[in-house]
Amino acid sequence: MKWTRRDLLKGLGGLPILGAVWWAGAASSVGSRKERTEILEQLNIVPSLPNAVPGIGGEPVRVGVIGFGIRGEQLCRALGFATNEWREEMTLAAQEDPNIKALEDFDKQEKLNVKLVGICDVFDVRAEKFINSFSTDDFTPKRYTTYKDMIQSGDVDAVVIATPDHWHAPMSIEALNNNVHVYVEKPMTHTVEETYRLREAAKNSKAVFAVGHQHRQTLSFSTARDIVEKGTLGHISLIQTNTNRNDDNGAWNYDIHEKASPETIDWEQFLGSAPQVPFNKNHFFRWRKWWAYGSGLSGDLLTHDYDRLNCVLNMGIPSSVSASGGVYTHKDGRNVPDVIQVNMEFPEYSSGSSQVKGKEKGMTFCYSATLGNGFNRPTILMGHDATMELGNNLTVWPDGGSTRYADMLENEKMRPNVPIYQYNPAANVPDAISSATSQYFADKGLMWTYIDGVRVDSTFLHMREWLSVIKNGGQVSCGIKEGFEEAISAHMAGLSWKLGRRIEWDPEQEQLKPIEGVDFDQVLLANGNWNMQQVTTETVT
Amino acid sequence: MDQNQHKLKASVALLRILIGWHFLFEGVVKLYNPEWTSFGYLATAQGPFKWFFTMLVGNGTIGIVDTLNIVALMVVGITFTLGIFERVGAIVGMGLLALYFFAHPPLPGLTQMNVEGSYWIVNKNLIELVACIVIYQLPTGAIFGLDYFRKNKLAKIQEK
């Protein structure tokens, strides 16, 4: 038996092809991985792990809930209590679309050591819903007519405040003065003056005070902090953050309950310090649209974006704020703007620099919002060396003009349009989010975070942290310092829009630089644009 | 051998080598990239068999699915390039391509994701699948490939 060269060629001709293809495939895979590893090693970013929270042991924390509207219900679910109505609704939703896992997620959520002992809501229907849903065979939560009754009853250890903005501070202060722990929704306060009073009360109280900026628990944000602190982005000169919504729910036109009437709603208590106007369902259910009870885009949504960034950059209160905008889309009687642009200046802020000295300071935070368009504009941090998109996912692109990455760019190990870092904790979890508004929050990383690929409600983590600090001591991640910075910054934005001028902060005196003839709180509380108001008053007189 | 028959076999052998090349490269690239996963492709599946592909992305199954995919790609790639057991390779290839085709079928009314051309019912996966049928029907390992030795061994022994 003898094989000729021709035989060998015919029989073994496939071998060199196999070898060549194998080599090419392996080389391209290994090569690009090596390049990536090199970049990652240079960046040295450590993805954050969730904080280990000491358990909430002993007797259950007795929690009273003030305000049981949309947010109040969400907060109760985070505490482990869902209404019967919501369970039914979510069961139906899951039957229609099996990807809607809200109920499944809720049932899987770790149980917290709390007892819902009381409710205070000025609308009978809501208070009754609370009691019907959360009563057990041997316990019925108590309804309190006023928040003072609840706080002073001695039967609650902690309160959750989810009321219109103008009630946040008075209720928080009352609770803190009685050493009752507080979890209050954002914005922390409704006026400048009460922001200081609340800070005093929190300092003097033995109780734990937390502001409801749940995204402080989002893992991508703590990873983002690591990215910024390691100088990955270089000197950040501009931050762009946005709100884009184009639906009724997003424009705060919530449903008006059919049973709403002066008989079922304690209107006088709802108004509190607000201007005394006759009973108005629109005001009651859609209070976010009026300065008297809410604070519009600047207090309601800018605060989320501001605190998201303050948690990553720790930039504090801006030295000045200018805002503009108007009511352009929803001319439905509201007086808070539905389009607003806010520029916050931080001339002393520095995130480090790869350049020569003198080029490392100063940043503008630009918030741009409309309730008339739903195009998703991401949050972008723009540094000299790289750009980062911040949300539940993180992406970092090198900048073409970077100093730090100049060599790698020149060697084509990095390309300006190719991300050098991506963080997507949800990569293995298909999502379904029911409404446009929840999609808005989910994209921003405000709704949930991912731990080991499992979706966890960040509000749950935030409340668990608060309860753990109540029991074990320690620090909440969004306490009075963070709340104070958030509230002052939001008020500066609101004031700037209303006055049509720049509002400045004096960091030494820790106060707004006064403007002659202007009472800031009077302006903040006044309906509509202050200039227009003044003009009207002048014309009348 | 008849001249036409020979030309046909040579052409099919060339087709077999190219398809083998394509599968082998896909397999090797995935084999050497431990982070590769078919998750995204399967999770975005569309069409009448969406339920099946969505089922595959479960926590326990995705790892097995990924491994099987790499093994199948390599089986087609190796048998086709080397020219041995190519009918086994052709069947595996048809199965794999049928799965790729039905995960993202180019049916009217479905949004085509991650495709580089415009297709209506027929796409490149389907064409490559039919090419695998041809290779199954007309094995060519005996004229170019390891099968050449097997087939000619007897002849050589007889020669002696």
Structural write-up:
The complex is a heterodimer of chains A (541) and B (160). Chain A is built from 20 helices and 18 strands. Chain A has 541 residues and is α/β, with parallel strands linked by helices. A ten-stranded mixed sheet of chain A has the order 14-13-12-11-7-10-9-8-17-18. Chain A has a six-stranded parallel sheet with strand order 3-2-1-4-5-6, with helices on both faces. Chain A starts with a helix and ends with a helix. With 160 residues, chain B is mainly α. Helix content of chain B is 67%, strand content 0%. Chain B has seven helices and no strands. In chain B, α1 (3-31) crosses α6 (124-137), α4 crosses α5 (86-103) and α5 packs antiparallel against α6 (124-137). Classes of the chains: A alpha/beta (541), B mainly alpha (160). Chain A binds chain B through residues 1-3, 7, 10-15, 17-18, 21-22, 24-26, 28-30, 33, 427-428, 430, and chain B through 17, 20-21, 24-25, 27-33, 39, 43, 54, 57, 59, 62, 77-78, 81-83, 143-146, 148-149, 152-153, 156-157, 159-160.
